[in-house]
Amino acid sequence: ANRWLCVGNSRFVDGSYALAIEAYSEGIDVGSPPQDVLECLTNRAAAHIHSGNFPGGVADSNEVLSRQAGEGPTKPKLMAFLRKGECLYSQREYEAALTCFQKGADMHHQMGTGTDTPAVPWDRWIRKCNAEISGSVYPLSTSSASVNGHSVVPPRSAERPMPAAPVVKEAPAVLPKERQQPQPPPSDDAASHKIRHEWMQTSSHVMVTVYAKGLTDKQCNATFADRSFSLTLQLPGEGEVCPWVLRVGELHGDIVPDMSTVVVSPLKVELKMKKKTYGAVWPTLEKAAENKKGEARQYPSSRAQKKDWEQIDKELEDELKAERPEGEAALNALFREIYAKGDEDTRRAMVKSFQTSGGTVLSTNWGEVSHKDYEKEPLEPPAGQERKQWNE
Question: What pLDDT does 70 receive?
Fold first, then answer.
């Protein structure tokens, strides 16, 4: 199981979560040693979270807790509470997620801060859950307290709304009739369409948050395409419904529409879009905004003749691409190109054949590699070398 655990961790770091899940599953099927199997389960739960399969993450976390039911505070149980809480939070089951985070915080407190104890921001997760449950805009001061470095969360009945500041109304000045002018009626956010929104990104997702309060799922409609999205909110106005639309026609990069979601909470509406390319950094949300910035970029120079640095960069890139590697470097470049352009079956075949054969076989035929065990087949070492097992 340890070997499959290392393979899964490597694929997880590369962002290949589907392949990481396969490797962790192989390690779980091996069944020993138990500690590595438990780590495969918790790591597979994390891979499920990044893939958007939250029920799968909950199932793996429950399996760890079931296997460790008779044990005291352990690292696998600690990570299982964390992964399960993250999955439940993503599924908007905030009270169940809060229970998991509280149990994890209690166990973390019992284990202390040793070198083997992972650093987990339990307090932050607990505050986020309480903020979603209560709808409070001040979760940091009303949701949790700390006693001896340990988070203590009061029950909901103990929460008190913060007192509103008194409103002082000034008497309007009296003007002569000839100077009095009709004033427009006061407008709210729904009527004036002034709603604050912002965006942020991680290695795997792009999030757009719209700070509109008190909406339901029926009042929000979001559509996603490969390179665009549209959000329509039905905002209550003065006696009528006012639609508010946020539309981006060309995003900076591609997204996966089937894995993009909209989450409605009492305080906000959040769009969570899955990046098609993991690890890609978007300098702007919209492609048009990025192009506008690129056109405005100028480099100061005292020369009368201006240089086109964009064209120079492009020429340098073309020269690097034109340089062809030779010998072993050319062979490795060919393998990398085949792996990059191949489908999932081709990549799995290359990884399994190369690893299980000790680096002597590299095949792209998954139909042959899937049921073949190179470790049990006799291998002929190169001339002048001797074949040995890895543990000899």
Answer: 79
